[in-house]
Amino acid sequence: MTDKIRLVCPDCETINQFQAARLAENPACAKCKQRLMQARPVAVSDSGLARHIGNSGVPVLVDFWAPWCGPCISFAPTYAEFAQRAEPHIRCLKVDTEAQQAAGARYGIRSIPTLMLFKDGKEVARMSGALPLPQLQQWVAQHLGA
Ligand SMILES: [Zn+2]
Prior knowledge:
The protein is an alpha/beta fold. It has helices at 46-54, 70-86, 101-106, 133-144; strands spanning 4-8, 15-19, 42-43, 60-65, 91-96, 114-119, 122-128. Helices cover 30% and strands 25% of the residues.
């Protein structure tokens, strides 16, 4: 039985495919040899966002933010800590909506910060506003049925 999953490399954006059981070992990218999970939110472009959402064997959480947004800046350390704890079971991304306006437009982001959760390439939940870490963990767990 082959139970393979895909993950996109945070550094070179190569799509890697491997046995799901190896996820716990945090495999290295076949191309650039960097770890596929780096215990931090990955900043992505518009195209990188689509690539991750479409090719992640784990749920994907996205923080839509902007450099001029005070609440976004204060939320950043919470999100970083979330990523550190949630990986490798959740891929955490962040999108600067000022630099990547197409991404925000595609998902109809009207206020920031907005968090979106995707599973198997589909949106399962979204929320506007920052949350403290325990509530963030609870929100994600609730929508993933974990
Ligand atoms: Zn790579």
